[in-house]
Specification:
The protein is α/β, with parallel strands linked by helices. The protein has 6 helices and 8 strands; from the N terminus they run ββααβαββαββααβ.
Length: 174
């Protein structure tokens, strides 16, 4: 791949959520640019960061340790064993879970409407609505509806050979 990035070897990689400000020279890895290239859609870094730790605040730092084989296998195990909670079925009173689909698959199935595909869900769908293959009016609503854990995205990118195995420091300024 002639246009692939080459990263300077470091013990800790800096994941810069604002891809426009990251360069190869300053050692930051623009996570949004990588995710868009690999998955073909933008990654909402803010939502993913918050989903991993709901108490993380503005001007925050979070370290994702995927350096050892065990850390990496754990991330991939979490990815493969994920069960999607789809809310409570009002008729039966039971929780509805979807198995066999990871958070990443779920996120990748969400699309944005265009001239050939009309929107299938409203801007603020109820929390019990299954969003698999949902088509949203615009990117903002789609990103707000669901984004996978950044840690699981990192595990998948390492598995695909897009990122080196290591410790990833995610900085979030908002």
């Amino acid at each position: 791949m002639p246009d692939a990035f080459e990263y300077t070897p470091r013990s800790i990689y800096m994941l810069e959520p604002h891809a426009d400000h990251a360069t190869i020279e300053n050692g930051y890895i623009p996570i949004e640019a990588i995710a868009e290239r690999v998955y073909g859609k933008p990654y909402s870094s803010l939502r993913g960061c918050q989903q991993d730790d709901e108490h993380i605040g503005n001007d925050s730092v979070k370290l994702y340790e995927l350096a050892s084989g065990e850390d990496y296998r754990q991330a991939l195990g979490d990815l493969d064993d994920a069960e999607m909670y789809l809310g409570r079925d009002s008729r039966t009173g039971e929780s509805v879970l979807k198995t066999g689909m990871t958070e990443l698959d779920y996120w990748l199935s969400i699309r944005v409407a265009d001239e050939n595909t009309p929107a299938t869900v409203e801007a603020n769908p109820p929390p019990t609505q299954d969003l698999e293959n949902a088509v949203f009016e615009n990117r903002f609503f789609a990103d707000r509806a669901f984004s996978p854990s950044l840690r699981l995205v990192l595990g998948d990118l390492i598995r695909r050979g897009e990122l080196p195995r290591g410790n990833y420091l995610f900085r979030h300024w908002w």
